[in-house]
Amino acid sequence: MTIALGIPRHRPSAVDPSSYRLPADRPGSDALIDRFGRAATDLRISLTDKCNLRCTYCMPAEGLPSQPVDALMTADEIRRLVGIAVSTLGVRQVRFTGGEPLLRADLVDIVAACASLPDRPEVSLTTNAIGLASRAGKLAAAGLDRLNVSLDSLHPDVFALLTRRPFLQRVLDGIEAAGHAGFAGIKINAVLVRGVNDTQAAELLDWSLRSGHQLRFIEQMPLDADRSWSREGMVTAAETRESLSAHFDLAPDTVPRAGAPAELWQVRRRGHHRLLGVVGIIASVTEPFCGDCRRTRLTAEGGVRNCLFAHDETDLLTPLRAGADDDTLARLWQGEMWRKAAGHGVNSPGFVQPERTMSAIGG
Ligand code: SAM
Ligand code: SF4
User: Fold this and answer.
1) pTM for the full model?
2) Using a 6 Å CB cutoff, which residues line ligand 1?
3) DSSP states of 33-89 as a string?
């Protein structure tokens, strides 16, 4: 099933700074604060909602209707908005995602532009690694600091079942090339799907530890295009820990979590003392961490979203193209973050899945 992207958007009608006022109850802070005392310092930017995989928990088999190229932010527009975010709004980390960000021909330029800003943020990328083999060196040279690669199975048949594409080897080649290009501490993101790869958690962890990568399991969230997510079908963080515990001893990591979504566990072989590394488990559904959320998001079309599960967003691209100054854009961004809800609501009885899917928001 393909869904239409009829996203409610706050579209500022004028670019005159006086036409947009922040709510009277908002304190006069430059930061991206909300009503619940949180300040967003971590910006996720989707560069495209296109992808060359079709992960069952994310995209429909037939893909999503593609956006016209001129609807997407250009490299210059991204640099301008990231510049405002870091110089005025207190953002310290920028992660490029999608869809598949490697599908942007200008990805290296975008990374270089953001990494050369005054008040340089930490710049990272979440990718499926297809095509990374030929671009890892250029991305490193452009100033990319960190890399997360999504990989759900080491078995070609299971990988193909989950992603609907037979490209496991390309992903493995991309990860290897990234290591040769100097990326250390690559994080591997895995989603477990019941009946498909849920028996492979320990194998993925074993491979990650041997390869020097940090594995993180992410609970499947109701952001799939097919709308087939169910609470019963989802593999929970507790189940993941239990399945790993058949092979490894897990102990809570001693490093403070500091707002990070992943809960880290120290890993040892069962009955052994030697610490092998850590594994992260992101329990977005069963143990939500919304109270510590530090995220703000930009869609590929320049819409600010205050949460993955938000039902609307504020358009920054239209006013930017109409000549809005930095101060106006900053205040529009602050206004959207002030509307952020206390939590994502997935566990509330009235929960409604947002119109946009994960690939169209940027995970
Ligand atoms: N294409 C890139 C990739 O796969 O890494 C970047 C975009 S993808 C949307 C970012 C992350 O979101 C991936 O790690 C993916 O596994 C995760 N993801 C996608 N759909 C999800 C869902 N419904 N629940 C939880 N995580 C999901
Ligand atoms: Fe593409 Fe990433 Fe979604 Fe998989 S998770 S379909 S690779 S955007």
Assistant:
1) 0.94
2) 51, 57-58, 97-98, 100, 126-128, 150, 189, 191, 218, 220-221, 223-224, 358-359, 363
3) E-TTS-EE-EEEEE--S--S---TTTS-TT--PPPPGGGSPPHHHHHHHHHHHHHTS
